[in-house]
Design a protein that fits this description.
The chain has an eight-stranded parallel β-barrel, surrounded by five helices. The chain is built from 18 helices and 13 strands. With about 500 residues, the chain is α/β, with parallel strands linked by helices. It has one domain (about 5-500): Glycosidases (TIM Barrel), CATH 3.20.20. α1 packs antiparallel against α16, α4 (about 90-100) runs parallel beside α6 and α16 (about 385-395) packs parallel to α17. About 45% of the residues lie in helices and about 15% in strands. Bound molecules: 4-nitrophenyl beta-D-glucopyranoside (PNW).
Length: about 500
């Protein structure tokens, strides 16, 4: 018996090494594996409040950091904003009708903090609560499960005026806001996601300044805002456990973004560099929350060393107290990942001249020119990266249910006959199926396409379109239409997999 187990383990390691860690475009086959996903697999589509709702000052909503940021010159490529966006604040029923047409079983959307608490704290706006009650009831009466993100980047401006994610008081403000959400909506919602992509908030919001609130501090503020986000997430996780879990029985998770990292060459230096890249990218949040209650060791030692050589009295990477570590460790019921693309990574000792998160990891990354492009500069089409990522997660952070809470592709055209997007979904979904059926990753429980609608793509405005459905942004009625990719997705969802008669 023991012998059999050992053989199985060896086979498993071999399998992961062949299919997982070493997989590159050279190994990738675009043959379709025909087969079904598990019966209870969740199929969804996703959006976020600021990107679709509009109604920026409707019914007592307060201002958030994106309302303010988009008004500044030069922040958004096409000078646009989410003031109207897809007008989902008024037309949410049309969104739900599209979800029904796609035949999905779940809808991931986010709640706008400033609709609920116009000042970020204090007085509650009943009309804001009512909007989400209406949306949730429309979703549920269509037999679709609502999956609710509490924070998808739209911090109330009054909280930013107090320092936003750089001020540790944010932890309490986020907890107070979350208590209202659990109280008001928790009887109808089974899955909550605390934060969407805290790395993007840290790196772009408080690092490069490309995203709201536009603060620059890539060497220090990025780390501080990450630290406060991790603690805020953990507090809210425990709030739910202590006050709501028993009566509501739901789950609380987090959505972390992840790229697959391929060593640029097969030298040991580059293999280690790619692993280091994964640790700085994903492990920054994943390791404290899923594994140890602390940052990855490689991050700790590199940022500590560089900080001290740079003359800082304490490390630019903050530390958790022992109590905080306990609070953070294991503070999630499931892992949400947002996966889009792959990077190639080379080892490069970047020294200590540059005080930056980007230099701290001693890596440079780039993408292969031969990979298919999308409408976004950072997003190349790399289906094998999803399977490798899922295997890497299973090896490094075992035991968690995984939901792919975002996956999708942009184009610039927004055309209805969107063949590139069909290619993307076909092959990414097939790699996900292979990871379940061939690699045995039974922890992969669900998938959400990004996005239901063409929408406001942050600093790229309306120039990059990710929708399964087209939205006419010049039409005051914001008329919407399913694209060819939406119909393709509907077929896979309805067949719960790849069926030779319908999908070839
Ligand atoms: C995510 N990158 O953002 C967000 O969660 C969505 O709101 C967004 O619309 C979607 O992905 C598409 O961009 C990302 O540069 C933005 O690696 C940029 C990156 C990753 C995710």
């Amino acid at each position: 018996m023991l012998f059999k187990k050992q053989i199985m383990f060896l086979l498993f390691v071999l399998c992961v090494n062949i299919n997982g860690i070493s997989g590159t475009v050279e190994d990738y086959t675009d043959d379709i594996l025909y087969g079904s996903f598990p019966e209870d697999f969740i199929w969804g589509a996703a959006t976020a409040a600021y990107q679709i709702e509009g109604g920026w000052n409707a019914d007592g909503k307060g201002e958030n950091i994106w309302d303010v940021f988009t008004r500044k010159d030069g922040t958004i490529i096409d000078g646009s904003s989410g003031e109207i966006a897809c007008d989902s604040y008024n037309k949410y029923k049309e969104d739900v009708a599209l979800l029904v047409k796609l035949n999905v079983t779940a809808y991931r959307f986010s709640i706008s903090w400033s609709r609920i608490l116009p000042n970020g704290f204090g007085e509650i706006n009943p009309l804001g609560i009512q909007y989400y009650k209406n949306l949730i009831s429309e979703v549920k009466s269509s037999n679709i499960e609502p999956v609710v993100t509490l924070y998808h980047w739209d911090l109330p401006q009054p909280l930013e005026d107090l320092g936003g994610w750089l001020n540790p008081d944010i932890i309490t403000y986020f907890k107070d806001y979350s208590r209202i959400i659990f109280t008001e909506f928790g009887d109808d919602v089974n899955k909550f996601i605390t934060l969407n992509e805290p790395r993007q908030t840290s790196v772009k919001g408080y690092g490069t300044g490309e995203f709201a609130p536009g603060v620059q501090g890539i060497g220090d503020k990025s780390y501080i805002s990450a630290h406060n986000q991790i603690l805020a997430h953990a507090k809210v996780y425990h709030l739910y456990q202590n006050e709501f879990k028993e009566s509501q029985g739901g789950q609380v998770g987090i959505s972390l973004n992840i790229h697959w990292a391929e060593p640029a060459t097969d030298t040991t230096e580059d293999i280690l560099a790619a692993e280091r890249y994964m640790q700085f990218y994903f492990g920054w949040f994943g390791t404290p929350i899923l594994l140890t209650g602390d940052y990855p060791e490689i991050m700790r030692s590199l940022v500590d060393d560089k900080s001290s050589q740079q003359g800082f009295l304490t490390s630019r990477l903050p530390s958790f107290t022992p109590q905080e570590s306990l609070l953070v460790k294991g503070s999630t019921d499931f892992l949400g990942i947002n996966f889009y693309t792959t990077d190639k990574v080379s080892n490069l000792d970047e020294g200590v001249d540059e005080i930056s998160y980007f230099a701290d990891d001693n890596n440079i990354q780039f993408q292969d020119e031969d990979w298919y492009n999308s409408g976004s500069s950072w997003l190349k089409i790399t289906p094998w990266g999803l399977r490798n990522t899922l295997n890497w997660l299973n090896q490094n952070y075992p035991g968690y249910d995984i939901y792919i809470t975002e996956n999708g592709v942009s184009d610039k055209q927004g055309n209805l006959d969107d063949l590139t997007r069909i290619y993307y979904y076909k092959h990414y979904l097939n790699q996900m199926l292979r990871s379940i059926l061939e690699d045995g990753l039974t922890t992969v429980k669900g998938y959400f396409a990004w996005s239901l609608l063409d929408n406001f793509e942050w600093s790229s405005g309306y120039t990059e379109k990710f929708g399964l459905c087209y939205v006419n942004m010049t039409d005051p009625e914001r008329r919407k239409e399913i694209k060819a990719s939406g119909r393709f997705y509907q077929k896979i969802v309805s067949a719960n997999g790849f069926n030779v008669e319908t999908i070839c």
